[in-house]
Specification:
1 helix, disordered C terminus, 5-stranded antiparallel β-sheet, 6-stranded antiparallel β-sheet, mainly beta
Length: 196
């Protein structure tokens, strides 16, 4: 028979992006792409402007569970030899409707390496190293190749970016562990006199 006991207490949650957009260098440095149904990444070459994707997610409800894995999933609408490289973005204050090449936040270290992106396929990146628990997380997708990759944005219903968070164990109550003393009650439980 199948042994389901090892996975029965694990849970996965799919979270939609709370913001996503792309920015473009060149003549479009002040252009906002926040309402477009696509997200585009492209490297710079003499004939094309560089394009970068920005995504933001809010992780909530871990309820004391440890995160086992986090996958960023994007639906590819135009394939490329490069899916782009996922990088961390520590600034989570950017707004989808206001982000441009000119005001984009600083892009940090690599979180997930590039791979081939196949048109129509779901491209999955392991971003576990960047997500430690509840909070808001931003990512950028960049590429050095001049082979444009296009993904569906959150405006593209049914194909929007998602963050799949897998937790270990079951959710606990928000209260302290049963053996924890209430805060400020140390004197009542400690019979020793104070040190002078």
């Amino acid at each position: 028979g199948d042994d389901l006991s090892s996975s029965s207490s694990n849970a996965s949650v799919a979270l939609g992006a709370i913001a996503d957009t792309w920015v473009r260098s060149g003549s479009s440095i002040n252009s906002n792409k926040g309402t477009e149904p696509t997200l585009q990444a492209d490297g710079f070459d003499s004939g094309r402007a560089e394009r970068r994707i920005f995504l933001k997610f809010r992780v909530a409800g871990s309820a004391g569970r440890k995160i086992e894995s986090v996958k960023l999933r994007l639906r590819c609408s135009e394939g490329s030899i490069s899916s782009g490289t996922v990088r961390s973005v520590s600034d989570t204050t950017w707004e989808e409707a206001k982000l441009t090449w000119s005001n984009q936040p600083s892009i940090g270290s690599v979180v997930a390496e590039e791979k081939v992106a196949v048109e129509g396929a779901l491209v999955e990146f392991d971003v576990t190293s960047a997500v430690q628990g509840d909070g808001t997380y931003s990512f950028a997708i960049t590429t050095a190749t001049d082979d444009n990759v296009i993904y569906s944005s959150r405006e593209n219903v049914g194909a929007a970016p998602e963050l799949s968070v897998s937790y270990l164990g079951e959710a606990s109550d928000a209260g302290p562990p049963a053996d924890a003393s209430p805060p400020g009650d140390a004197a009542a439980t400690d019979a020793r006199p104070p040190v002078t």
